[in-house]
Amino acid sequence: MSKNWLYVVLLYVKLSLHNRGYMKNRVNTSNLLRQLSAMTLLLLSSISYGQVEWMSFEEAQLKIEQEPRKIFVDVFTDWCIWCKKMDKSTFQKKEIADYLNANFYPVKFDAEQKEDLVYDGNLYKYVKMGKKGYHEFAHTLLKGMLSYPSIVFIDEELEVIQPIEGYRGPKEFSMIISYFAGEYYKSMPWKAYSQRHSQDDQEDILDDSRVVKHGN
Q1: Residues 90, 197: one domain?
Q2: H or E segment at 14?
Q3: What is the pLDDT of residues 176-208, one digit of tens each?
Q4: In degrees rounded to 5, what are phi and psi of residue 96?
């Protein structure tokens, strides 16, 4: 439940009490409202939000030299509604944000950015097409399939492992990132891995003991 929704519920209860004449008993109503306010604050405090530590490709390339780690890329555009939905429903989950920060270098890449990008010694530019356009690196990452949102996994040698297109909810996304972080993609088909964890809770899927730690 979102914070805005909880505020709306509280406001609705207050207005309902007033309109139905309950304000005649001001003492009881005042006590009730205080209890409702306390309950709302309790609910708000129980909501866990996460913060993915997004970085640029330039930053990720510098970090990977110091500590080898896979790169996770969220490819988006400003006009993409499902990209915004994934930001709110998936990336803001605390368990997911913490997992991405601990096991990947997370990069958020605008597929229509105008700035040049140097990646692995190669220069990529913006390509104008009519009123809009695309970035050459987005085209490279997504293997020519410019669909948004898309996520991409890159290995420690800066080679693309796999792009995956489309919106992904928290549970499916949790399975996907643990599949690549744990390097199961090297030995187990995705179908077998996803079936094995289809009944698991999100916390069980994001089990740190399954993650391949580099540099240990």
Answers
A1: yes
A2: helix 3-19
A3: 999 999 999 999 999 999 888 877 666 556 654
A4: -70, -45
Q: What is the spatial distance between Cα 64 and Cα 168, in angstroms, rounded to a whole number?
A: 26
Q: How far is CA 63 from CA 43, 66, 67, 210, in A?
A: 38, 5, 6, 23
Q: Give the whole-angstrom CA distance, residue 142 versus residue 139.
A: 5
Reported in sequence order, the residue ranges of the chain that DSSP labels E, i.e. its strands, are 70-76, 104-110, 117-119, 122-124, 126-129, 132-135, 150-154, 160-165
Beta bridge partners of 71: 105, 154
Q: Give φ, ψ of 144 to 5 degrees.
A: 85, -10
Look up the CATH number of the domain holding residue 106. Answer: 3.40.30.10
> Token pair of 54, please?
């997004």
Overall domain count for the chain: 2
Q: What pTM did the predictor assign? A: 0.73
In a domain, 52, yes or no: no
**C-alpha dihedral, 40 to 44 to 46 to 51, nearest 10°:** 170
